[in-house]
Amino acid sequence: MTTNPSPQIWLYDTTLRDGTQREGLSVSIEDKLRIAHKLDQLGIPFIEGGWPGANPKDGQFFHHLQDQPLQQAEIVAFCSTRRPHAHAATEPMLQSIVAAGTRWVTIFGKSWDLHVTAGLKTSLEENLAMIRDTIEYLHTQGKRVIYDAEHWFDGYKNNRNYALQTLETAWLSGAEWLVLCDTNGGTLPHEVSQIVKDVSCHLSAVREKNSLIHDQGQNQIPQIGIHTHNDSEMAVANAIAAVMAGARMVQGTINGYGERCGNANLCSLIPNLQLKLGYSCIGEHQLNQLTEASHFISEVVNLAPDEHAPFVGRSAFAHKGGIHVSAVERNPLTYEHIQPEQVGNRRRIVISEQAGLSNVLSKARSFGIELDKEQPQAKFILKRLKELESAGYQFEAAEASFILLVYEALGLRQQFFEVQGFHVHCDLVEGKETTNSLATIKVAVNGKNILEAAEGNGPVAALDAALRKALVNFYPQLATFELTDYKVRILNGHTGTAAKTRVLVESGNGQQRWMTIAVSTNILEASYQAVVEGLEYGLLLYSQGKPILS
Amino acid sequence: MTTNPSPQIWLYDTTLRDGTQREGLSVSIEDKLRIAHKLDQLGIPFIEGGWPGANPKDGQFFHHLQDQPLQQAEIVAFCSTRRPHAHAATEPMLQSIVAAGTRWVTIFGKSWDLHVTAGLKTSLEENLAMIRDTIEYLHTQGKRVIYDAEHWFDGYKNNRNYALQTLETAWLSGAEWLVLCDTNGGTLPHEVSQIVKDVSCHLSAVREKNSLIHDQGQNQIPQIGIHTHNDSEMAVANAIAAVMAGARMVQGTINGYGERCGNANLCSLIPNLQLKLGYSCIGEHQLNQLTEASHFISEVVNLAPDEHAPFVGRSAFAHKGGIHVSAVERNPLTYEHIQPEQVGNRRRIVISEQAGLSNVLSKARSFGIELDKEQPQAKFILKRLKELESAGYQFEAAEASFILLVYEALGLRQQFFEVQGFHVHCDLVEGKETTNSLATIKVAVNGKNILEAAEGNGPVAALDAALRKALVNFYPQLATFELTDYKVRILNGHTGTAAKTRVLVESGNGQQRWMTIAVSTNILEASYQAVVEGLEYGLLLYSQGKPILS
């Protein structure tokens, strides 16, 4: 698509602002920086970084970003119009957005008369003045302005003329983009389509009316953008409807994160626009990274990826066994709406040994390990993977465990230590605040046996502590390791406490993080195995002097 | 909407067939029966029960259903057309669909020439004969037929004339519904709209051509249905586009369950069709049960409900604090696209004490406990709920724990037993298959102390076993209790093994099931608390002689 002459759609990502409104999602400044750089690599031209005036953390984010600037993308600061009867030049929120030091800013204002009179408790005229002053002031500060028309579609349905006046005002004050927002997410595609068309016609008419104005190029019609929410499960369809009606900017978030039911999902919008409608959004090589970017960001925000997500979900191109499979292999496009590789996903045909083997090889290759599919080790790895996967393991997330498995097959796995056994006990005495757990562990390092004991808040914490205590004298670097995340999932719920437990452990050493996995009917055993592999992989990193996972 | 003169849309639920294709979803016959009856209460007119020929479990389901017939809904059996060059009358799969004893059957056939020649490896003519023979044979068996045109939209794009011929054939053989299926989920709404319109025009033209045919009323055009998948995140939008283009049957699943990325989500389709477009689907009183039905079915299939699901998700009408809230309370419709109550959901305004209190009262009322909001106990319960919820508890699922809390506040909570402490220990010796866990527990019943010990596969199982052993002599009914489900979720992932753990335990006594919840930084303590409350609630049911939860 890079050489595609088709019309350009400007993607605008608001994962870092609207996306973080999702209940249960919280990000540190470091998380935000990692996400911003990932979006930059993905080729998103506009990345909304946050609302510096409303949130001090966002203010700091923009400062940190100046030390680690983006390659391509424009980072955008977000803010509302000035308050009623305030002066734009002295409005603190506008000071902070100027201080954010971005070239582009997004200003949102009210389109719905009811929100002006009932919400802001001010006059319709004052709201227009707020839009005008704010945008004109930011112009004097050398900013380029995107205008988000909040509650646009509801406002339009309630009072078309006033809603259109707010857009005109934003335009004539110098906004380069007018973004129509379906803030409550209640609009349906046929309405979006009709309203976007009406807006374009109206703006052309206004241009005629103002054909004498030539300063600041306002005789040029600003482009239209679309910002949708998923409350009617229409966010993606509405954005597509707007584009087909003439919108040229699409705002959304990775994985559709956002308040309530979320924002328009860029992971679905990009392939629909680019592969199905022939618009150009990002480079082909970037589209190939879409699945990886989706999973990376879900890991950073610590939410399990949606396995059934369109395009990027683990199940999106999964095929059941039987005749189906051979047919898929003969002619995939009769059973798949796109080629999974186009979005960096893969076909999953459980029974296809060949597919499995090539997956193993390509995965090993991605960690710099070259295997030949005729090598017996390659077949061994595949066999082992299949056993483990049918036992409930999943290596998509736990790549450190996968590498240890490959090293083992190749006879490269070092034995840094050998756990010979452990003993955990927990006491609860009614009335006491929490349970105390005590772990005793026996490990052998270079033929020397160490017996160590440690207490912890719960059995896993106690085991982890005892293990580190036992090993740190031999491997001082262990002191820098930390358990950064711990996830438990029950695989077969219906069998009660005898259910199988999958434990994912994330460990870190300050520079990098890695995930390990274990499955057992005993939650304690699964936890212990994942913790042990986490430590082993960390030691492997040091012993090799360089990180394996980039 | 019950008295609404607006056009009727016929809903067709395939949760029990297409829905169970979802990876990780498996249902027993009992589960299927519970779901079918719930869908019947919800007012879904057509419920697809399964494919009796392909799956023996489905065959049994139809037989069991004859003992527990549905009130309103038509249960539908699903099957493919006969195999190439076979005889419909002797085709085993068609025998089993007849044996299923339903009034209606759904037959799916190939629309895409490529699937006929490459997939079935037969001629285009033979495929038409397969459709004709199958439908005509089922007619002779007194069945009313719905025809699912598999891969319809891809087939139409590839070879319009042949695709249309397959529909004509189905119609003229006696199908009453022609359902256009976007089997690969790759079609976009504007295409669906155009193609559905073209099909209607074509069928009218065919009617003219066949105006002399009068037997079996085939001069009457069959109605068009739509069946969509979510691979482009367009399943709901595509179904709506089809309806606006004239389709009158909509096929989908509850919560959008289905293969790969799922089917069209009825929980979004129904409110969009009924509340936004004015079609009539189900009764108003049934629409009010939509959220409950969605959650009920997700519990039965043992998948966590999607908290961000449109209309029925826990976050769908959640409002953050601040000015926003007062505005919402003044005029909800300026911030909500529909009234949550219309779909049986509720607004969640975290900071609004009043809202909280009325929630407590209404919830207690739903369990037959009348509270007055001036009662100090009511305020106490609310305070306690807020403390527990901010600690990570969630009572939506764990109603048994909620009731115990209410009983406690009202001084009605009986003390069946008092756990005075426990001691669990687990040993792992390298090389042994699994870890052994031994639990010792001290309980007091009627002032008598009992010390018991039991082994188990993992610490929780051991604790559960010891507790039952200690209590069963006092409460023989405990023998009938079982732990039917056990779910663990980490609440704040980033703090590693010290993270808070939420444990949900489902217990049962053969007749009913109930859920209890506990949260702790110690997974073992949380599990133990939830297990103990599960037993206590079970005993409460017996002591009252009647179930509290209906």
Poorly predicted sequence stretches spanning 5 or more consecutive residues of chain A: 350-355, 546-550
What's the count of strands of chain A?
16
Assess the beta-strand content of chain A as a share of residues.
15-25%
Strand order of the largest sheet of chain A: 1-2-3-4-5-6-7-8
- CATH fold call of the largest domain in chain A: TIM Barrel
CATH homologous superfamily (4th level) name of the largest domain in chain A:
Aldolase class I
The biggest beta sheet of chain A is recorded as: 8 strands, parallel, barrel
Q: Structural class, from secondary structure content of chain A? A: alpha/beta
Oligomer state of the chains in this structure: homodimer
Tally of helical segments of chain A: 18
Describe what this molecule looks like in 3D.
Helices cover 40% and strands 19% of the residues of chain A. In chain A, the strands form four sheets. Chain A has an eight-stranded parallel beta barrel with strand order 1-2-3-4-5-6-7-8, surrounded by nine helices. In chain A, strands 11-12-13 form a three-stranded antiparallel sheet. Chain A folds into three domains: 10-281, Alpha-Beta Barrel (TIM Barrel); 283-349, H-NS DNA Binding Protein (Irregular), CATH 4.10.430; 418-543, 2-Layer Sandwich (Double Stranded RNA Binding Domain). Mean pLDDT of chain A is 87; it is low at 350-355 and 546-550. Chain A is elongated and about 90 Å long. The two termini of chain A are 28 Å apart. Chain A is of the alpha/beta class. Chain A has 18 helices and 16 strands. In chain A, strand 1 (10-13), helix 1 (29-42) and strand 2 (46-50) form a beta-alpha-beta unit. At the A-B interface, helix 4, helix 9, helix 10, helix 13 and strand 11 of A face helix 4, helix 9, helix 10, helix 13 and strand 11 of B. Chains A, B: GO terms for molecular function: (R)-citramalate synthase activity; 2-isopropylmalate synthase activity. Chains A, B: Belongs to the alpha-IPM synthase/homocitrate synthase family.
